[in-house]
Design goal:
This protein is α+β, with helices and mostly antiparallel strands. The protein has ten helices and 19 strands.
Length: about 350
């Protein structure tokens, strides 16, 4: 009989978990949610969230003349020498140079003109490539805002914290974030993302659908800003069942007024609601059964700026057959989650450094 050490199947590289040492956060810290439509910035020193349109106005391709809400006022109204654009597209940075200008302008505004060294926590979508993820780091590093440390938080994780959920426990949580360009569907558990899927359906697609429906039904051309205003107006319970809109008649080419009713707008959005619901079902079909049981008990959590469309929550509840919880502040949910990471040491470990991914 040969005596010796028992062989185990444990790989040599597996080690005991290291004790997390909280590095702390500077008193001057910011949490940034780069939404396609709106940018949300949490300022630790004021403990407030600033929300502005993520838009920039460039004159003659070289001079920034407006940003944020001021640039949005120029949208679809500017002459040919002024370009008014969104630097973010489909949840990722589409124009990094203009986005750097915007970030610098917003941070200067938050710090009242004097840029001081600060820590930055930025929310990043789960379903992006390493190149797209690295662009978020390069954006903060190269924007000239004196970043001492740049940390990343998965957007779905920040959503869960912003909804008031203790995501570090073993309970499964289903979060559906309906944004302007994309909808992110995520299953969370034990402080991580079990499953995640991003689809290119959101408020921008809703607006396009309204523009197409009005053109088809009334021979009237309207702008995206008008379509967004129509959508927002009908989401307000205090608004009436009809709304007057103005645009250009296709036949005569002259300005014209038409009246839209609530049913017409709802009908134009049903197809896109169906797409979101179908993708939620796909994620649920792949979810482990124990997590499915948790989701059934606690319900689905719906957030994001475009989640307030009337009929979306009802459609989801009918089709998925679980309760739907709508966020109290859907636009700010991610920023609220970043604030939790910055303020509370028990959530600090959910952030990770992306310095090694830089140029």
């Amino acid at each position: 009989m040969i005596f010796g050490r028992r062989k185990t199947n444990i790989p040599r590289e597996v080690q005991a978990e290291e004790i997390y040492r909280d590095p702390g956060v500077s008193a001057n810290a910011f949490g940034i949610d780069l939404g396609t439509c709106n940018i949300k910035i949490y300022n630790r020193s004021t403990d407030r969230i600033a929300v502005q349109k993520n838009m920039i106005a460039i004159q003659n391709k070289k001079t920034m003349i407006a940003f944020g809400n001021s640039a949005y006022e120029m949208y679809e109204k500017a002459p040919a020498n002024i370009s008014v654009t969104y630097p973010i597209g489909s949840g990722v940075i589409a124009d990094i140079n203009n986005m750097e200008l915007l970030i610098r302008a917003f941070i200067r505004q938050e710090q009242r003109g004097a840029v001081r060294p600060a820590d930055f926590y930025i929310a990043i979508p789960a379903d992006v490539t390493e190149v797209e993820r690295r662009a978020f780091y390069d954006l903060i590093k190269d924007a000239g805002i004196k970043a001492k440390r740049i940390m990343a938080v998965e957007k779905a994780i920040a959503d869960g914290l912003g909804l008031g959920i203790d995501i570090k426990n073993s309970h499964g949580v289903l979060v559906v974030d309906v944004g302007y360009d994309t909808t992110e569907i995520s299953i969370l558990s034990l402080g991580g993302i079990v499953l995640s899927k991003m689809i290119k359906v959101g408020g921008h697609v809703f607006d396009n659908s309204i523009v197409s429906a009005v053109r088809r039904e009334y021979n009237l051309v309207i702008g995206m800003k008008t379509a967004e205003n129509v959508r927002m107006a009908f989401n307000d319970p205090s608004s009436g069942d009809t709304l007057s809109i103005y645009g250009r008649d296709i036949v005569t080419g002259l300005p014209m007024e038409r009246t839209l009713n609530h049913e017409f707008v709802s009908a134009s959005l049903k197809e896109h609601f169906r797409t979101i619901v179908d993708q939620v079902k796909v994620i649920l079909e792949r979810t482990p059964p124990e997590l499915s049981a948790d989701i059934y008990r606690h319900g689905l959590f719906l957030t994001g700026g475009a989640c307030q469309e009337e009929g979306l929550a009802q459609k989801m509840e009918e089709e998925v057959r679980i309760p739907v919880n709508i966020a109290d502040s859907p636009v700010n949910t991610v920023a609220l989650g970043l604030a939790q990471v910055i303020r509370k040491s028990q959530y600090r470990s959910l952030a990770y450094t992306i310095e090694g991914l830089g140029r």
